[in-house]
Every structure is written in C-alpha cells, then in structure tokens.
Design goal:
The protein is mainly α and 97 residues long. The protein is built from five helices and no strands.
Length: 97
C-alpha cells in the first residue's frame, strides 16, 4: 500500500512522501493519525533492531503499540494483550517506567 500511495502522490503532487499530505487532502484528524502511526512505527523499529530503549517511555510505547494492533485487528490485539508480559515487567522495574 505504501508503494501505491508513494506512486500516486509523486504523480499527482510531485512529492513522494504522501504522509506529508502535499495535496492537503487529509483532515486535521487524518494528519494527526498519520503522524501518530509514524511515531509508533519508529518505536517498533527501535525495539526490532535492538536499539537501547531503557531511557524511553516504555509504558506509553506499549499502549501505543497495542492501540495500533487494535486498529489493525482487534482479535489479534486481544490475543497479544493476553500473551504480553510487558505490563508485569514494567511494574517490577526499578525507577520510572
């Protein structure tokens, strides 16, 4: 889907970064949603590539990840929530989470 949106945005507006909304087609809420999704993808990338996350707001990032999962598939999000040990680990973590 990203490739299709990139091709469309490039052809229509001369800007490949469709998420920047070069044609001002998105509502304010749509732009906020895209920005939030991009922030969540960044957090996921940090974790997936084993970058240091000890100094990050882990509780908020976990909530954001679960929210994104729920956007995609509520059934899978429920399954993930049932298996996730992140909340319990954060409760035992010394210092702020």
């Amino acid at each position: 889907m990203h490739d299709q949106l990139t091709a469309w945005s490039t052809g229509r507006f001369g800007e490949p970064r469709w998420y920047k909304d070069p044609g001002r087609l998105l509502s304010d809420r749509g732009r906020q949603d895209v920005a939030e999704a991009r922030r969540r993808a960044t957090a996921r990338g940090r974790i997936a590539h084993h970058e240091p996350i000890h100094n990050r707001p882990l509780r908020e990032q976990h909530v954001a990840a679960m929210t994104a999962a729920n956007w995609i598939c509520p059934v899978s999000a429920g399954w993930m929530a049932g298996l996730s040990s992140v909340p319990q680990v954060l409760e035992r973590r010394p210092g702020p989470a």
